[in-house]
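Project standup — Tuesday

K.O.: blocked on the structure for the chain from last sprint. Re-posting the sequence here as requested.
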Amino acid sequence: MERKLQASAPSFRFSTVMLIDDTPLDNFINKKIIETSAFAENIQVHLNGLTAYEYLRDLDKETLDASLPDIIFVDLNMPVMDGFQFIKKFYTLPRIYREKCRIVILTSSVNKSDRDMARGIDPDIVFLNKPLNTEHLSLIM
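H.V.: unblocked you, prediction finished:
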């Protein structure tokens, strides 16, 4: 009797995450870490806060709940629209966005005032220093 081995599909913690960072290398590394740890099934990448905001704002209202990312990793220092500008615009979107999406600041900044500003916007914002790693991912529930 011949036995066939079947690989089971990975069990992902989240359906979709969004990376917002202007550095392609950081996006590449973060995407690989997320993929290899089975953290999320889908990964969306944006190179600045404006394209990310426009994407979210323009989602089809009929499929909004299924289309929203569970986690949004956002860098702070970017051209066009920086991370804090994105976060402030994000909080102007309808309530379902805030209920479904969790904001995680992923930055190289070690400035305490950045952490304080994030807490001032929303105390539930997670603040992580680059580089992203599996330990960081385990902290995000």
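K.O.: great, moving the ticket to review. DSSP finds seven helices and five strands in the chain. The chain has a mean pLDDT of 91.
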